[in-house]
Design goal:
This protein is of the alpha/beta class. Helix content is 19%, strand content 30%. A hairpin with a 4-residue loop joins strand 4 and strand 5. The chain is globular and about 60 Å long.
Length: 298
C-alpha cells in the first residue's frame, strides 16, 4: 500500500545511486544492486528505482552522506542552452576536478547530478547546466533561482578525474555538449600537474552553435604545444580547426591506433558507450577508460 513516503531520485536508470536504501527484511532483487560495491550488496543496499520486489520488503535510509550549501555567485549563458553556474565553495568541501555533485531539492526529493568544471584551488564551484524543455531541475536552476540564492548539494563523487601516476601518457578527452564540464576541469588539472604527454580535446555538438568555451580551449592549446583542441559537429557549418562526423569515428580518424593512451569520455550515455567500445577496439585498455555518462531522468 502506498505510504506517501518521498524518496530521493535522479536518473531513474540505476546510475547515480541517489535513491540507495538498505533492505532490513526481504531479499534485494539482483537488478536493484547492479553497479554497487560488493560490501554494499552484502549489507542489503539497493537502488529503489531498479527494485521490483517479488516478496514483502522493509527498507530504511542508509547513513546519509555529508551535505553542503552554497550561494549562487554568477549565472552566465555560454550558448543558447548551456548556463555556467558558479557557487561559492564551502570551506570544508573537497573534490577532484571532473567529479560530480548531486544538487538537492529537499521539499520535492528531486536530485540531479552535475560535474565540476572548476579547480580545487579556485574559490568557486563551476557547473555547466544544460536547460531541457520542461526539465524540472534545469528550469529551476536556469530560470527560477536568482543570484545569491542558496543551493544544497552532496559531497563530491565519481572516478572520472585526472590521476598523475603516468605524466608521459597521452590523454584523450572527449565530450558531448555539457560533457565538456568535467573535461575542462580535468584538462586544467593535468596542465597544473605538468602533464607531459599529448592531450587531445574533442568537444562535440549537433551543430556549431551548440559548442562553447571555444576561445578558452583555443587559448589553452596555443599556450601548451602538447594540447590539441578539436571542435566537432555532426552536421552543418564546421568550426575553425574542427571536424564533422560522429565523435568516436573522428577520434580514431585523427589519432589512428590508440594503444597506450588514456581516455576520459563524458556526455550522453549512449554516445559514451559507443566511444568506449570504439576506443577499446582501437587499442585503449579497459583500465585506461574513465567515463562520466549523463543519463536524463525518466
Amino acid at each position: 500500500m502506498a505510504q506517501h513516503i518521498r524518496l530521493p531520485y535522479n536518473c531513474m536508470h540505476g546510475v547515480c545511486h541517489v535513491c540507495a536504501v538498505k533492505a532490513t527484511r526481504g531479499s534485494a532483487p539482483a537488478a536493484s544492486q547492479l553497479g554497487l560495491a560488493v560490501n554494499l550488496k552484502k549489507q542489503g543496499v539497493l537502488l529503489t528505482c531498479q527494485c521490483f520486489p517479488s516478496e514483502d520488503m522493509d527498507i530504511e535510509d542508509i547513513e546519509s552522506e555529508p551535505n553542503f550549501s552554497a550561494s549562487i555567485l554568477d549565472k552566465t549563458w555560454l550558448n543558447q542552452d548551456v548556463l555556467r553556474l558558479r557557487l561559492n565553495k564551502p570551506d570544508n568541501f573537497t573534490y577532484q576536478p571532473g567529479q560530480y555533485i548531486n544538487i538537492l531539492q529537499y521539499d520535492t526529493g528531486l536530485s540531479r547530478s552535475y560535474s565540476l568544471a572548476s579547480l580545487a584551488s579556485e574559490d568557486f564551484l563551476e557547473l555547466h547546466i544544460k536547460r531541457f524543455h520542461q526539465g524540472k531541475m534545469s528550469t529551476w536552476l536556469c530560470d527560477v533561482l536568482p543570484q545569491g540564492h542558496t543551493i544544497n548539494f552532496s559531497a563530491s563523487q565519481g572516478e572520472c578525474f585526472y590521476q598523475p601516476n603516468n605524466p608521459q601518457q597521452d590523454l584523450i578527452l572527449a565530450g558531448i555538449s555539457t560533457g565538456l564540464s568535467p573535461l575542462y576541469g580535468i584538462l586544467r588539472e593535468a596542465l597544473k600537474n605538468n602533464h607531459q604527454g599529448n592531450i587531445y580535446v574533442f568537444h562535440a555538438s549537433l551543430e556549431k552553435q551548440g559548442l562553447y568555451y571555444q576561445n578558452e580551449l583555443s587559448q589553452i592549446a596555443k599556450a601548451a604545444a602538447h594540447v590539441r583542441y578539436i571542435p566537432c559537429v555532426l552536421k552543418g557549418e564546421v568550426p575553425q580547426d574542427g571536424q564533422q562526423g560522429a565523435i568516436d569515428q573522428l577520434i580514431v580518424a585523427t589519432l589512428g591506433n590508440c594503444t597506450g593512451k588514456r581516455a576520459y569520455l563524458c556526455g550522453d550515455d549512449a554516445i559514451v558507450q559507443t566511444m568506449k567500445k570504439t576506443l577499446f577496439f582501437n587499442g585503449v585498455a579497459q583500465k585506461d577508460i574513465f567515463a562520466d555518462a549523463f543519463v536524463s531522468a525518466a
